[in-house]
Amino acid sequence: MLSSGTFRWLWLYLLIGQLMVSHVKTAWPPSNSSNVQVLGIFEYLTNTTASSVSSIQCRAMFISAILLSQQYNMTIQGQNISWQAVETGGDPMTALADTCQAVSISNIVGVIGPALSRESAVIAPFASRVGIPAISYESTDPALSDGNAYPDFYRTIPTDSTAVLAMAQLFIRFNWTSCTIIYQNDEYGTGGAQAINEIFDANNLTVSEAIVFDTATLAIHGDLKSLLTSSAARIIILWADLDYAPLVIQKALDLDLLGPVFTWILSVPATLDSFNSTSYTKLSGMITVEPVPGGAVNAPINTTLLNAAYSIWQQYEPQTFPGADNVDYYAIFAFDATWSLIQGLNQLCSSFPNISSTCTTFTGDSFCFNRRFVNSDMLINILDNTSFLGVSGPIKFSNTSTDRINGTYYIARNIQHSSSSLNYVPVLVWSNSDGWTTNTQTNVIIWPGNSLVVPTGYAAISGLTLDIIVVDSAPYIMTSVIQDSSGQTTTKLTGYIIDLLDQLQGQMGFIPNITYFPSDASYDDLIESVANGTFDLFIGDVTITAARREIVDFSSSIFDNALRVIVRNSVSSQLDLWSYLKPFSVKLWITLLGATIYAGILMCILEREGNEALQNRSIVSLIGMSMWFAIGGVMGAGADFGATTAPGRVLNAGLSILSLILVAAYTANLASDLTVLKTVGLISGIDDIKNGKVPPSRVGIITDTSIEDYYLREVSGGSLNFYPVDSTGAMIEALLDKKIDASIIRYS
């Protein structure tokens, strides 16, 4: 907020006459006959633009409401309400300066206007400071809807948020999913663009591109042709007012960016008089979505007030009255804005006798920023609870929002080309309760190109050359070598995808430029080449992942794909006569043989004299019996004679202990070998890998593929603990070389 001191120099500047306030010379009665005055703020009153025609009609309905209150004897402190009108030229500072001057030298009890959102963004805080209501008839910026931020601001025209909601429902009605917006860089434009982004997103609609029109340089930011043609969206929303919309349309016309290729939706009914008749076919098919009073859609309105206002207008300024059917819609909203304020003032001064003599009193000095309306809170409370049937429909406000609560209507009009002119033809109407419905007058929409077929909303590709990636992957893409009669060979692509492309080419008319990649190409790299614009399409067995969705769009799946685990085939077992020796190693068997011989020799030495079984035998027989004893002890079977001496018994005990250990170890190892031999496969599915039946380092994963993404997301929790391979061939080789035990592959 600027300081009071900052504005004192402005006040002096105004007093010495350096800033002029424009008034229109008309036949209206004098406006300075009362001390209770309402200020009307209008954009243009003195030139001949489309905006000035609207402003003059708004001013006429504003004054008609004031004069009608005089006819109805709605006096304040015994005085009629009178008026002042100022012209801003669309400049917010001019609007503020003129309003400040009027408040400083006159008893301004309320403001009707401004028309523009950029002006209301300045006047609304000023009105709150002074304590007088400001009721706009044309400002639609959603940022002005906050009743807490702008407690003294109201508007009888619907906010742009409602307009965008109506547009979103129009998109849904015609099955459009995306658009490009062009908006002017002021409060009206940026507020509308923000509302479009928010509301379209909530309705699953996409804004492909947002393009700025600079109101200072009157130029588009960037190359308009490149921006529009590079986007797939073919629905263009132009969010610009009456001053700038024709400029943007003319630029698009010069660049051939209108029909039949693009469908334009306008937020205002841009004047068509400035366009050459040779361009009518290009302009035909545009749609406008604009707020309208209830009378335009056969909703209830106060016809008594409306006819009385028209009668006063025709009495004092008949040269500007266009006829009841051609009155600018904003002028009707201006009447209801004025009538709301008049009713609020009348109720304030008539319903509270104790303040009737001071109901319009101000405090402070003459400088506008130091003035304060004494009964501001009471008047605002009355307006918050205002409810009546106006000339635009039901009027009702609240203390939480500056917007009217009900009586909101929109109309969609279609620019249609007749033999010698362009006309706005009503085709659809919208209300909060019913959404879009068919207009009672006509429901035929002529789309760009003089077509009755609803546009698809996206770019057609007939005649365009598309750079397409395919990857060797049977049966989708296969190669075959063909030799002609001269002996020259060529490689031909075959497969399901080639057949599909032939079918699509016949139906859609595009020209395919196919680039072939071998099967070991990185799918992630190929997808990146589509994302950066190197190629237009990648058709193949491509897995859809969340990461890939962030950079490219996918079509609907045309075949199912799954993941499978690949392992080595189990080798069928063959009869091995020496397999009973495998539980122990060769070294262990040699050690056991040596231990047995040594035990036999000890037995011979220790028992030959004291053991009757070994007495009187030859050397060979003695050695044989001793070895028999040792072998029986090691095997746990025992011999047919026992040890009789103490050393012999100790040896026998040692052999028994050794026998227990050897039998247990042999049995365990033999059982393990037989179990492994009988196992059909190591794992049965992906769940076995998740459950750790195979060490992660023994699982082969092809890197830079969707399989790696799946493994990291679903199996390892992001840990790179697998065995990396770079191709299917390398994975098969690693399996056969027993570097890995399993791998995950796609299976179609």
Automatic annotation (TrEMBL):
Q: Does the keyword Membrane apply?
A: yes
**Where mainly located?**
membrane
Name of the featured protein: Uncharacterized protein
Alphabetized Pfam families for the sequence:
ANF_receptor, Lig_chan, Lig_chan-Glu_bd
Q: Which GO terms describe its molecular function?
A: G protein-coupled receptor activity; ligand-gated monoatomic ion channel activity
Tell me what topology the record assigns in the membrane: Multi-pass membrane protein
Q: Does the UniProt entry include the keyword Transmembrane? A: yes
Q: Where is the signal peptide?
A: 1-26
Start and end residues of each Receptor ligand binding region domain: 80-411
- The coiled-coil regions, if any, are none
